[in-house]
């Protein structure tokens, strides 16, 4: 940004492809696609041989691999995941692919006892050389790991509610640090542009991937961070804009506001939007439970509950159906 008083450094890429290069995806796919196709083939072959349990049994019976550039997610039973790791270890080098073991994380499923869970952890560490600290025992077997049971996957948090809540708190601390830098800008126009076009948008992806019930306190705190930036532009030191003015500022530009979206309302809409966008890629079992059997959910009880809870919260927030029809006249409400 031109308003920041600091040097600009040029970074040279020493290997791989340059960030932002339009050919980067193609170059990567040329080397990786054959390996990924073989992984998918092996997963599907194993599913053809497996006896599929009924929905009521509450077991995963679908295997798939999803890849986005250099991030690949394996959705499969544990034994199938282990086979994939063996394949990449043995044959990945032929495709130029290698496991970065320091970034490999394993979230173990529930075991019969803590002892068997520890045995599984040792197996992953000994066989695949994954660091022990990156292998998490399920909280059902060891309640002391509740806050650590989770990972960050493609920018979203996956794990227990305690883990996600902790990560959200850390994200807030990061945003507080960024806000302090913005407050040092002497140019008020630069402050507003960065606030409206950059700072407030930094949380949208997290809102799309995190249950809104876990973001209520975060949203309140984040709105305060935005308001403090506005206060520094409009008010004398030690004072701030009144509540009514702040509410108006959160309206869209065309409605007479400054486009500073209210965080909680944005989070509710973002989570539903994220769920809808992901719907085509969800396992069939999850689609069934969301659409038909939400009350008898076995496989994904927390996710189904969160989805319905968010929908109900939006319905409560917009009690007037005609208002929703005005906002989205071309959509079914």
Please characterize this protein's 3D structure:
This protein is mainly alpha-helical. It is built from twelve helices and six strands. It has helices at 24-49, 78-91, 114-128, 161-183, 188-197, 204-209, 216-234, 243-249, 263-278, 284-291, 301-317, 321-327; strands at 64-68, 71-75, 106-107, 135-136, 150-153, 156-159. The strands form three sheets. A two-stranded antiparallel ribbon has the order 1-2. Strands 3-4 form a two-stranded parallel sheet. A two-stranded antiparallel ribbon has the order 5-6. It is globular, with a radius of gyration of 24 Å.
* Element order: H for helix, E for strand: HEEHEHEEEHHHHHHHHH
| Proportion of residues in β-strands | 5-15%
What distance separates the N and C termini?
A: 41 Å
Number of strands: 6
Quote the average pLDDT. Answer: 77
Briefly note the structural class of the backbone. Answer: mainly alpha
Largest sheet geometry: 2 strands, antiparallel
Sequence stretches where pLDDT stays below 50 over 5 or more residues = 53-61, 320-333
User: Which shape, going by the Cα principal axes?
Assistant: globular
Lateral strand order in the biggest sheet: 1-2
Helix amount, in percent?
40-55%
Could you tell me the radius of gyration in angstroms?
24 Å
- By oligomeric state, this entry counts as single chain
How large is the count of helical segments?
12
Q: Tags for this entry?
A:
single chain; 333 residues; mainly alpha; two-stranded antiparallel ribbon; two-stranded parallel ribbon; 6 strands; 7% strand; disordered C terminus
């Amino acid at each position: 940004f031109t308003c920041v008083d600091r040097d600009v450094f040029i970074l040279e890429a020493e290997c791989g492809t340059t960030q932002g290069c339009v050919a980067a995806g193609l170059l990567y796919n040329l080397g990786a696609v054959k390996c990924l196709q073989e992984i998918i083939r092996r997963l599907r072959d194993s599913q053809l041989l497996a006896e599929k349990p009924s929905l009521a049994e509450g077991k995963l019976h679908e295997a798939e691999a999803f890849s986005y550039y250099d991030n690949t997610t394996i959705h499969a039973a544990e034994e199938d995941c282990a086979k994939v790791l063996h394949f990449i270890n043995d044959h990945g080098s032929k495709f130029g692919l290698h496991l970065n073991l320091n970034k490999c994380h394993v979230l173990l499923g529930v075991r019969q006892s803590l002892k068997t869970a520890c045995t599984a952890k040792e197996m992953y560490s000994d066989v695949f050389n994954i660091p022990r600290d990156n292998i998490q025992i399920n909280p059902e077997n060891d309640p002391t790991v509740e806050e650590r049971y989770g990972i960050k996957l493609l920018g979203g948090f996956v794990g227990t509610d305690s883990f996600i809540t902790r990560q959200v708190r850390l994200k807030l601390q990061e945003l507080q640090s960024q806000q302090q830098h913005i407050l040092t800008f002497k140019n008020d126009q630069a402050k507003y542009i960065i606030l409206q076009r950059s700072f407030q948008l930094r949380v949208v992806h997290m809102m799309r991937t995190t249950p809104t019930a876990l973001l209520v306190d975060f949203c309140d705190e984040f709105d305060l961070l935005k308001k403090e930036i506005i206060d520094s532009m409009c008010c004398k030191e030690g004072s701030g804009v009144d509540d009514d003015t702040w509410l108006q500022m959160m309206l869209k530009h065309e409605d007479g506001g400054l486009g500073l979206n209210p965080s909680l309302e944005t989070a509710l809409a973002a989570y539903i939007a994220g769920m809808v966008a992901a719907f085509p890629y969800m396992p069939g079992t999850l689609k069934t439970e969301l659409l038909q059997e939400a009350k008898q959910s076995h496989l994904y009880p927390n996710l189904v509950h969160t989805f319905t809870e968010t929908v109900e919260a939006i319905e409560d927030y917009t009690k007037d159906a005609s208002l929703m029809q005005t906002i989205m006249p071309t959509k079914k409400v």
